[in-house]
Amino acid sequence: MEICKLEHIRKDYRMGELVSPLTDINLTVNAGDFIAIEGPSGIGKSTLLYVMGTLLKSDGGKLVIEGVDVSSLNDDQLAELRAQKLGFLFQDSNMIQALTLRDNLLFTQKIGKKSGKPTRNVDELLERFGLADRANFLPGQLSGGQRRRAVAARSLIHSPSLILADEPTNDLDKQWAEEIITILKEEAQRGAGVVMVTHNSQSSQMAKRRCRLEDGKLLDLE
Ligand code: ADP
Ligand code: MG
């Protein structure tokens, strides 16, 4: 089943000089796919995930998520789509600083429940991400690696159909880096489409399909 399709996607930034990190991106993500996209820092990996996640509008091309051309959606519909279908493992995803880790996850769960979304058990997720003994810590009391795992755990609460992971193994030791990839693989096995971008080719070697972002295009690697 096709979850997401990008056709000739282009993205330009105009900050004085014109920068075009994405010029012609073509990619189909099916249920069960785990796709790793490699590329050096500054090449456009985060930009690509922002566009796929409808957080940034492209300057050309077509993005279809679960059969819907996202250009046909208004801002409210886009927000709804993100909340219902997408899971973001981004570094800058904030937790609510005044709530404990567990309450942060419960809060996210509660918001989704109202709109009838499936939810997972928060304590099981914390356990899976090695955070059970940090459940009652405030976000500010967690290490960088623990915060990263916390964001990852939170992003899976509603079993998203498209998971977008931006350098998810940064700040993690080798064991946890591998464990995060294993978890992402399991998500693909349950039927999610997973797209991970990374400058770390070691992480990407564990993915089912590897691509490289170069000159604004995706090249398949073997
Ligand atoms: P990566 O994630 O691969 O490190 P990015 O997608 O963050 O790369 O950035 C790609 C290029 O686009 C870089 O040259 C960066 O400076 C530029 N860029 C990123 N975000 C913006 C922005 N909001 N405005 C202008 N230029 C940007
Ligand atoms: Mg980046």
Structure description:
By secondary structure, the protein is an alpha/beta fold. 32% of the residues lie in helices and 30% in strands. It is built from seven helices and ten strands. The strands form two sheets. The protein has a six-stranded mixed beta sheet, sandwiched between helices. A four-stranded antiparallel beta sheet has the order 2-1-4-5, with helices on one face. The two termini are 23 Å apart. The mean pLDDT is 94. Bound molecules: adenosine-5'-diphosphate (ADP) and magnesium ion.
Overall body shape: globular
Distance from N terminus to C terminus (CA atoms, Å) equals 23 Å
Order of helices and strands: EEEHEEHEHHHEHEHEE
Number of strands: 10
- Estimated structural class: alpha/beta
Ligands in the structure?
Answer: adenosine-5'-diphosphate, magnesium ion
Sheet with the most strands: spatial strand order: 6-7-8-3-9-10
Average predicted local confidence, pLDDT:
94
The largest sheet, given as strand count, sense and whether it forms a barrel, is: 6 strands, mixed
Instruction: Give the uncertain stretches in residue-range form.
Output: none
Calculate Rg over CA atoms.
17 Å
Strand content: 25-35%
Helix content: 25-40%
Q: What is the structure about, briefly put?
A:
The protein is α/β, with parallel strands linked by helices and 222 residues long.
